[in-house]
Amino acid sequence: MRCTLTAALLHRHALLAVALCVAAAALPLSCSAQVLLVPMDDAQSDHLRAYGLTYWCLQEPRLYECEWLLNYRCGAFVLPDRPDVRARAGHVPQLVLGGDAG
């Protein structure tokens, strides 16, 4: 009886381990920011470029969804993390990845 219980317990743990491996494989291998934060506080040295980048994101043909955080870092902007936005933002000082916005 004791051996049967142990075998059943091992079988249950093996199934659990397989299920966890399948779930882990389904997760993305790398995490990246989904948004970019453009602060407007004293950390930002070129406010006009920050406004310009946000305006560029809102223009056609892009029409990206942007947010203006009025009460966070003196009105920071949240922009989508897309390759064209990153390329355009290369000249904007103090661009912060969404995960580093702390």
Mean pLDDT: 76
SS field, number of helical segments = 3
| Straight-line distance between termini | 56 Å
Helix content estimate:
40-55%
Proportion of strand residues:
5-15%
Low-confidence stretches: none
Rounded to the nearest angstrom, the radius of gyration is 23 Å
The tally of strands reads 4
Query: What is the overall shape?
Result: elongated
Query: What is the succession of H and E elements?
Result: HEHEEHE
The largest beta-sheet arranges its strands as 2-3-1-4
Which class of secondary structure composition applies to the elements? alpha+beta
For the sheet with most strands, the description reads: 4 strands, antiparallel
How would you describe the overall organization of this protein?
- The protein has 102 residues and is of the alpha+beta class.
- It has a domain at 35-100.
- It has three helices and four strands.
- A four-stranded antiparallel β-sheet has the order 2-3-1-4, with helices on one face.
- The N and C termini lie far apart (56 Å).
Quick recap of the structure?
The chain has 102 residues and is an alpha+beta fold. The chain has helices spanning 2-26, 47-58, 83-88, and strands spanning 35-38, 67-69, 76-80, 96-97.
Summarize the topology.
Elements: H1 2-26, E1 35-38, H2 47-58, E2 67-69, E3 76-80, H3 83-88, E4 96-97
Antiparallel strand pairs: 1-3, 1-4, 2-3
List its traits.
four-stranded antiparallel sheet, 102 residues, 4 strands, alpha+beta, single chain
